[in-house]
Each structure stands twice: as C-alpha cells, then as structure tokens.
Amino acid sequence: MPVAEGLSSEAAPPEWTLCYTSVFADRDGEGRFMADRSVEIVRTTRETDVRLMLNIDGSGRSEVKSGVGFLDHMLELFSRHSLMDLNVFCRGDLHVDAHHTTEDIGICLGQAYDRALGDRSGIRRYGSIILPMDEALVTCAVDLGGRPYWEWDVSFPTSKVGDFDTELVADFWQAVTTHARMNLHVWLHKGRNSHHIAEAVFKGVARAMMAACEIDPRVQGVPSTKGGL
Question: pTM value?
Fold first, then answer.
C-alpha cells in the first residue's frame, strides 16, 4: 500500500488473517443467496492511509489497528455485535489529532457497506434497537434505502474519554452514513458516563445494521416499490 505524503512508513500493513475480494451475493437458480458480501477499501490521502476489509456475512471477527486505542475498542465491539468481520489498518497524522483518522475510517466503512450491498436486493433494509449499556440508553434506527440522512441527538458529559475527543463519535457516524447512502437516527435517552454512551451507540448501530443487512428469502429483488434503491 502506498504511503501518504508526510506519514511514517515504519509500520507496514499487517498480514491479515482475513482476506476478502469484492463480491456481491447473488441468487442461484432456486433463489438462494450465494457467496459472501465482502469488500476491501483502500483510501490514501495526505492525511491518512486506510485499508479496510468488511465481510457482512461473517462471525464477528476483527483485527483493528487505527493508532487510536478507543476507536479500536469501539470498532472491535461493533464487529462483534454486528457479527460482521472487520479488518482495519490506518496510518494517520496523529501528531495533529485523531480527527482525520476517525473520519476517514468512517468514510471507508460507509463505502464498504455501499459496495458490499450492491443493488441491495434481498435485504430486510430496516433495523432498529433500544439498547442499554449500564446507565446509558440509546435508540438506533437504520434504513439502507440508498439516500444519506443523519439524525443525531447524543451529547457527552465529558469532552474526552482518555485522550479521545468524544465529539469524534458523531463525525465517525456521519461519515459512515453519507458514504453508505443510508439513514441513521441515534438518540440518547439517558447516560452519565461518556465511555458507556459511546459504547451503547456503537453496539446499537451494530445490532441495527445486522438486522438491516440480513437476507430475507421472501424478498424478491430490491425492497422498494420503486423497483430500485
């Protein structure tokens, strides 16, 4: 992978335990879906080098090395609770801050969903959950309808969790939403611990995405009366 201008080349991308090619699940002659919906995204700018691999039909395995510890933790639990396999390697300008790294990984994750879902035939399309994390309680709702819309009503009682800026949680999910061409609504009902709030959001979106991406054998074609998404 090429090294972005101004970024260190000391850390080489790891040898991934999971390696996917871009392929969209298709139906066989009996209407059953075949092949994994998996994709690799590579994004190189002057600010970051990102390599991301997503398998929607996975088992929740992950390998994440973003250089931002709290973000690694959130992405690992997102993978686990969505039951999607996720590999992320990022070399970013962390001497500035974690903004570019966090947002660019969000862009790549959104692009991965958009490409892996193809024309979105056969999916349930919608997913939602009310999810508790100790004292924190969030609602997350997803529509994979092909149009980006982001509604966010989450506030954090502290500006940081460790050295991670909590405002970056919103930036991450806005980037995912835009590039996945999906609707995402997230509401925080209550919560006093910033770590718990962020974790509830990532777990909640994971569960909502798992439901929305699920193949429904009763769905013929795209789940829309328009005939396309």
Answer: 0.85
